[in-house]
Amino acid sequence: MVNRLASAMSPYLRSHRDNPVDWREWGQDAFDEAAARDVPVFISIGYATCHWCHVMARESFSDPAIAEYLNEHMVSIKVDREEHPAVDASYLAQASAFTSQLGWPLSVFATPDGAAFFAGTYFPPVPISGHPSFLQVLHAVTDAWTNRREAVTANSTALAAAIAATAVQDPAAGLPDTERIDAAVSTLEAHEDREYGGFGGAPKFPVAPVLRFLLSRPSGIPLATRTLQALVTSPLRDAVDGGYFRYATKRDWSEPHYERMLYDNALLLDAYSRAYSQDTSRTWAKTAAEGIAQFLLGTLQLPTGGFASGQDSESMIDGERSEGGYYLRDADNRAGLTPPALDEKVLTGWNGLAIEALTRASVVFDRADFLESARWAADYLLENHRNADDTLVRASVAERRSTARATLEDYGMLAGALLELSLATGELPYAQAARSLIDQTLAAGTPDLVFGEPGGGDPVLAAKGIALAGDPSEGAYPSGISATATAAWKLYLVTADRRYADAAQSAMAPLGDVAVANPISFGASLELMAAMAVGPKQLVVVSPDGDNEPLPEAVRHDSADVVGVVTEQQARELAAAGFELFEARLPVNGRRVAYACEAFTCRMPTPV
Question: How far is Cα 356 from Cα 242, in angstroms, rounded to an integer?
């Protein structure tokens, strides 16, 4: 048997290289083989820091009898959901027809045409509490494929067509006004866990995009701060390293699943920075933010400058594999322990979230080390995650690049980060790179989807008609649509180019009704819609060249949509390059001044 995963870029795939299962990577070849052999396709989707993925690998994929059955009766594909998010999204949507308990590992059985006909998540090695064993599932799938083929293919084809055509967007919905946006806040309040903070029962996630939306509305700030403050002292936070775990299995935030993800911690860092900036008496917010930043810089940032996508939940303690045991030790008792492994896969979009959050935190907390970390990561991506045609690379490990296509989230999240970095440093190249990324997405757009993926989406999904074009769904982090629209809106605020504003509004308008009705799933979209509803505020601080005086607290905590801090020369360069916000923004009488603006109409400059 050829070991096809030994040379995979993804650490998750390489962790399965010694399985007796004859795994293939995602690609058309696997489906072609299934068609030639007239067998179904088993698609196993997970990620490197997923606890139950590890469990199923040990229990089932390492079992010679199970592997022998899979190899004889199916073609098996292993997918890293972080490397191929479009594949994950398509099969999650299809799996929802078979189970309401969606998650990872995601186990999908599909026809050689790629259409799912059965799906589940974790399957145990033996029957437990009415749940069939994995081998029983495999036998049932084979029986259906062999004896009820016509029904299987008819149902799967109809399901795939329905999923591909499904869209929650309503072109006539329109952007919500502030009254409707505050109704979304009220909906979230109705689902608040008043005792422990957060929303709903178990399992419980921090849903950072929703917290950031709430912080953007006066009516939502109390709700956001109650949850953020509860999280500081909860078991979801690692009190030693400062990072947050992905979610808790209990309503009181206890018994977490101990993987620590880059996106959660980046977005929570931003939320805590905003909470502190709004009220500096919230010292708990500063404690949490600085702890998260410590985790990002000290644990997840790699020697290259890029950030790893996460840290595992499992590690070896006293010769035995332990889930969470490392994190349950205090600082003294952790000494000498080998920490859980990192998934050293550098994802462009998630790195963008970290760069943006660290840049904003560097301003709020006056921390040069945060800014240097953000700049280091950004420079790494600009040097190593761009192809010769200027399209982005989705993922890399060390010097190896993934062949997966970069997604819309990569363009939007990195563009937003580069704009934030340009505003904090005054450096034109970051702003130009951000504008180029958004321009590429506009050029790749269609009449139905204003933002497109440069280079196209996943070719296998597209060829099989099961790609979710323009998927707006959000969970733990912004969707590609909301991230790109947010970056385009911010680009409008510094260029005054209506193309970017119109594109952002066109992308958000079809989501207005569904976002207001389901705010827990559209936090980032609602945050942007709220900003559009109240109108933009901008602040430009211009210093004489060579002036290195620290920023006053009033500037560091200003709530404007964009805050640009530049020297006189930088302002001239930005203005000359088409960033109109900086046009004629000059020091006065050799002194640093601030220009406070609303929709590009600025008041007289004031010394700061």
Answer: 19
